[in-house]
Write a structure and sequence with these properties.
This protein is α/β, with parallel strands linked by helices. The protein folds into 2 domains: 31-145 and 286-372, Response regulator (Rossmann fold, 3-Layer(aba) Sandwich), CATH 3.40.50; 148-283, Response regulator (Rossmann fold, 3-Layer(aba) Sandwich). The chain is built from 14 helices and 12 strands. The chain has a 6-stranded parallel beta sheet, with helices on both faces. Helix 8 links the parallel strand 8 and strand 9 (260-264). Helix 5 (147-160) packs across helix 6 and helix 7 (213-226) crosses helix 8. The longest helix has 27 residues, at 2-28. Residues 1-27 and 372-376 have low confidence and may be disordered.
Length: 376
């Protein structure tokens, strides 16, 4: 009788163990939530693809994205982050694009709530923040594109295709983004480095059009009257470059004939302009960076820390011209994003992966063969 009772208890215990395992398994399948803070909105020419590509990665990695849109007002950051933290299902982590103080604000609020933050695409400019994990334990890392190199490569390409003015100089006009942006600062440094290497190039003026196509359009209308022999227009974004093209067309100027122009972003509109010959080049690929940062956050939350590979990660941009546009175009097609297996970039899903690889070329290899190999 005692033996039967013990046997019955053992069977009940086993049933309970299996039941609890099932509950735990279902709990672990629940998607983790990541808040994504951007300085503009998902309708923006650049941030639209950023959000779309990120959401494709999140779906593939069984994660949810809560979009926090600053809409050109970095002062709204605190309210957005606080609301997210006070919700019924607060984020398990944040990825934040820092503009002015928005990144640092996010780090401070998340630190109080003990929620990890990954800074992406825009650097924290305040020295008080320190390096990742230096002063704030939950400021886990930073992933930034090589802004200076993008500005430099774009400038070199354009200057090489510019025509000398009557004084023998290649006259350059430059349109930069907003003040307080690490992207603006870095891209301008790259432009100025290229100018030092090309003594035949002469920077006539650099202006801040604040990333706004309409502002760039209006500014170019005035500047081209002052500098009519301009043959190179360098723009820190595709949007501003396209604004310049509108103003040029209104004056009867044709890019590729009267001047050369290029931008940065790899926007769909930029790609179309490069293919048509309206833009001579666009540097980019960094629209994928938020998705790459998500892979690191995914692994970190699963207990696989990326600290041994560095807490400050630099990614490269690629210069897209008419000569290589067909090779990279599949990466800009939203239809292809759902076909990418982002888990192949993760060490959690690939324990044998020795080093993370985040680059345009890596993602190109992840595309379906008929797309990724098209017209190479």
């Amino acid at each position: 009788m005692i033996t039967q009772a013990v046997s019955l208890c053992a069977r009940i215990a086993l049933v309970l163990v299996f039941a609890m395992n099932g509950i735990c398994s279902r709990a672990s399948d629940k998607p983790q939530k990541v808040g994504f803070l951007i300085p503009r909105t998902s309708q923006d020419m650049f941030y639209g693809p950023v959000v779309g590509f990120l959401q494709a990665a999140a779906k593939n990695l069984n994660m949810d994205i809560e979009l926090l849109e600053n809409d050109n007002n970095h002062l709204s950051t605190a309210g957005l982050v606080e609301d997210a933290l006070q919700g019924d299902h607060r984020p398990d982590a944040f990825i934040a694009v820092s503009v002015k103080e928005s990144g640092f604000t996010t780090v401070k609020l998340a630190e109080q709530a003990k929620v990890p933050v990954m800074i992406e695409n825009g650097a924290i400019l305040s020295p008080v923040a320190g390096a990742p994990r230096e002063h704030f334990a939950y400021y886990i890392g930073e992933m930034l594109p090589s802004e200076e190199m993008a500005g430099y490569e774009l400038a070199k390409y354009l200057i090489a295709h510019g025509k000398p003015a009557r004084n023998g100089k290649i006259q350059v006009l430059a349109f930069n983004g907003a003040f307080g942006s690490s992207a603006s600062d870095g891209r301008e440094k790259g432009l100025r480095r290229a100018l030092l290497e090309f003594p035949q190039a002469e920077l006539k003026q650099i202006v801040s059009a604040r990333w706004e196509p309409e502002t760039a359009q209006a500014m170019f209308t005035g500047l081209i009257k002052r500098y009519p022999e301009t043959s190179v227009v360098w723009s820190a974004s595709d949007g501003m470059a396209l604004g310049v093209l509108k103003a040029a067309k209104a004056r009867g100027l044709v890019s590729g004939r009267d001047f050369v122009i290029g931008g940065i972003d790899w926007s769909a509109e930029g790609l179309a302009a490069v293919r048509s010959g309206a833009l001579q080049a666009t540097a980019g690929g960094h629209f994928m960076e938020a998705a790459w940062a998500l892979v690191l956050v995914h692994d970190y939350l699963a207990g696989v820390d990326f600290k041994n590979e560095g807490l400050r990660i630099k990614t490269d941009m690629t210069l897209l011209t008419k000569a290589n546009a067909d090779r990279y175009a599949p990466l800009l097609d939203p239809v292809n994003w759902a076909k990418i297996d982002f888990s192949r970039l993760s060490k959690v899903h690939n324990p044998r992966l020795k080093k993370y690889s985040f680059s345009v070329e890596t993602v190109l290899k992840l595309l379906p063969q008929e797309q990724g190999s098209a017209k190479r």
